[in-house]
Amino acid sequence: MTTAAAQVLRRLQERGETLGVAESLTGGLVAAELTSVPGASRCFRGSVTAYATPVKRELLGVDGALLAERGAVDPEVARAMALGVRRVLGADWGASTTGVAGPDPQDGKSVGTVYVAVSGPGGVQKVAELRLNGGRADIRKESVRSLLELLSNELGEDARAQDTEQIGGN
CA-to-CA distance for 130 and 139, rounded, in angstroms? Predict the structure, then answer.
């Protein structure tokens, strides 16, 4: 997976942009993957492990009513986390993970339900819904891989020309 992280960091560096990450179910695994790449500090600003719902609200600015209504495992929460980490860390790009790694369901969502999100310059906002199988470690690992893939796609040469996709309404 380090190859995906290296590709993301290379693209960020080429663009002269920075990244911040907000993680819930992955608990710092995205940041660990990124920082395993030599030179990551050139564009990786840092991360917030927002495992507890109050941290999502108080630090990242996720709307309390949204959290109360839908719970932390929600596409709009993932989007808000990505936006919030950009603001908190002063990064050009924000990326986030939220979901249920198990062993039990959470907020009415089954194990393996994960949302990964990316927010970037020019109004880029993407949220992907994942339905993952396997044990807790497998779900967390695949969540990291999926987020890096989503981010890599958005950082591609034609990313600014792509339509943005949002799950949920504004």
Answer: 10
- Are the CB atoms for 29 and 141 separated by under 8 Å? yes
| CATH tag for 2-161 (out of 3.40.50.2300, 3.40.50.300, 3.40.50.2020, 3.90.950.20) | 3.90.950.20
Q: Are 29 and 140 in contact (CB under 8 A)?
A: yes
Domain range annotation of the chain: 2-161
The predicted model scores a pTM of 0.91
Tell me the pLDDT tens digit for each residue of 4-59: 999 999 999 999 999 999 999 999 999 999 999 999 999 999 999 999 999 999 99
Query: What are the tokens at 10?
Result: 């290379």
The dihedral region occupied by 78, where left means phi > 0, alpha psi between -120 and 50, and beta the remainder, is alpha
CA dist 123 and 107 (Å) reads 29
